[in-house]
Write a structure and sequence with these properties.
Blueprint lengths: L1 E7 L3 H8 L5 H4 L3 E8 L8 E8 L2 E13 L3 E7 L5 E11 L3 E12 L1 H5 L2 H33 L2
Antiparallel strand pairs: 1-7, 2-3, 3-4, 4-5, 5-6, 6-7
């Protein structure tokens, strides 16, 4: 099981402003690009989005479905990776002081081949991926908050 955390220097509402936008998913999730809505109203339970994953010259398509939403503290996703199966990705979101947010990310294989291949080495790779992903999420929150601030300044 790969668990990682990130302190985001904005309130929870700024984080949710990014999490609620399906077009932003490919900006902060490592390995994905071109995210867009697939079904339902993201991030309501049962809604999904699709994206492209590029590995060298190869291009694959994946999708992620919301399995649990308890706004503003919990978002749980199931990422579908074709022949590898699926993974559970859970965000535990906590206020940290007056204007910061602590995000804990927990990911592990759920169905299919990836479950039988899961081991300590895979967890180590997930830790590296999560460090980058949470850093990119914090940057996306910074960018959106700065953009919103510029729009509201007369």
């Amino acid at each position: 099981m790969a668990i990682r955390h990130q302190l985001i220097k904005h309130p929870m509402s700024a984080l949710w402003a990014v999490l609620e936008r399906p077009d932003q998913f490919g900006e902060w999730v490592v390995g994905t690009s071109g995210s867009r809505s697939r079904e339902g109203q993201w991030p309501e339970v049962g809604s999904s989005l699709e994206y492209t994953v590029r590995v060298g010259p190869k291009e694959f398509h994946g999708h992620t479905t919301v399995r649990r939403l308890e706004r503003p503290h919990t978002l749980e996703l199931e990422a579908h990776s074709g022949f590898l199966g699926t993974a559970r990705i859970a965000f535990d979101i906590r206020p940290w002081g007056d204007d910061e947010t602590l995000v804990l990310l927990d990911e592990h294989p759920l169905r299919g081949t990836s479950g039988s291949l899961h081991n300590a080495a895979v967890d180590a790779l997930l830790q590296i991926r999560h460090r980058a992903m949470l850093g990119r999420l914090a940057s996306a929150v910074d960018s959106l908050a700065a953009s919103d601030s510029r729009r509201s300044t007369p």
